Amino acid sequence: MKCVKVPLRQINNTRIKLMSDGLMNMEYRIKTTDEFGYIPITKDIDGYTIEDIELEPMKKVPHNFAEILEDELTHDEIENLKTSFDTIGDIVILEIPDELHDKKQLIGDAAYKFTKRKAIYMKKSAIKGTIRVRDLEFLSGVDDSVTIHKEHGVRLKLDVREVYFSPRLATERKRVMESVKDGEKILDMFCGIGPFPIVIARNRNVDITAVDINEAAIKYLNENIKLNKLKGNIESYCGDVREVSKGFKTEFDRIIMNLPGLAYTFLDVAVDLIKDDGIINYYEFSDSYDQGIKRLNDAAGSAGKKVEILNTRKVKSISPDEWHVAIDAKIKK
Q1: 281 phi/psi in degrees, rounded to 5
Q2: Residue-by-residue DSSP string for 241-299
Q3: Which among 332, 267, 272, 277 is positioned nearest to 305, based on CA atoms?
Q4: Is the dihedral of CA 310, 314, 315, 319 positive or negative?
Q5: Is 0.70 topped by the overall pTM?
Q6: pLDDT at 180 over 70
Q7: Do the bridges between strand 207-212 and strand 233-238 make them parallel or antiparallel, or are there none, so unpaired?
Q8: Alpha carbon separation from 181 to 80, 169, 177, 185, 279 (Å, rounded)
Q9: Residue 72: which pLDDT band, with cuts at 50, 70 and 90?
């Protein structure tokens, strides 16, 4: 490799000059000895001492795993490939368009190489059923679907094949936690593995009742309670919250309803269980807030109560015309 040979004390100024003139070969590392530096160049240059030196190539770091596939996929295929993915602990879950399923192994291997995570899976279905899981296909790495995900100082153990968990709600969980005051009695009606309860109870001295119909989710919630140092207390129940809640002897200061596809069907239960001036953190899929606000008002009105809307926000995009929306509502007699 052709190199400019300069004394060590001149290497930095020479490097900057060669880079600014577009003459430095950026594909190789600069080599130094006790006295001299050797800077790779793209062509002979007058005014410098030029020597042919063996240099170490620079390691190219791809900006996304699509770059690794440039020799395998066409430009249009790469454009259609969703380079965003969910990272849950040391597991990556990809969403690959149908038209690229015949290249799924190449894509999975590229994602494994790029992310250096334990396992790469591909979504095979939408979230389905009462226990809210999706089919996954293993692509690359080690086929081990159990992991520990970390966020906001907590550890959340889960099996991505057995439970639903979205790392994209981390900011929302922190926002809700920051609105909670010590001493609150909280009900999470659809708690999953417990991300809301664990994040809240780690930071606040509260009593949380956590319910989910998925036995695997409750199993991991109980493990996560032991896995984290909590200020508050969490009591878990497995079952349909409509039935489980019939045995509750208390009302709640706050109820979390993060089941955006079906939460509206449980609003009557929430309104019955909320204290006067209590807060419902309600979530649904919608193109606006109007539908959710109407549902809250209808449920409260049927119970002789009224609603004060405290806050609304878009949590994440589901499609160009639909959002995962959040509505914070105070329920009053």
Answers
A1: -90, 100
A2: HHHHGGG--S-EEEEEE--TTTGGGGHHHHHHHEEEEEEEEEEEEESSSHHHHHHHHHH
A3: 332
A4: positive
A5: yes
A6: yes
A7: parallel
A8: 46, 21, 9, 10, 12
A9: confident
The structural domains of the chain, ordered by start, are: 2-52 (3.30.70.2580), 65-144 (3.30.300.110), 166-332 (3.40.50.150)
Task: Single out the residue of 206, 180, 186 nearest to residue 274, CA to CA.
Answer: 186
Contact status, residue 189 vs residue 213, Cβ threshold 8 Å = no
Tokens 């780690």 appear where? Answer: 202
Q: Do residues 4 and 55 make contact, with C-beta atoms less than 8 angstroms apart?
A: no
Q: What are phi and psi of 85, to 5 degrees?
A: -155, 165
Yes or no: say if 221 and 164 are a contact pair by the CB < 8 Å rule.
Answer: no
Q: How many residues does the chain have?
A: 333
* pLDDT tens figures, 3-24: 999 999 999 999 999 988 889 9
Residue 164 is encoded by which pair of tokens? 């639903």
What's the per-residue H, E or C state across 53-106? Answer: CCCCECCCCCCCHHHHCCCCCCHHHHHHCCCCCEEECCEEEECCCHHHHHHHHH
Note whether 104 and 140 are within 8 A (CB).
Answer: no
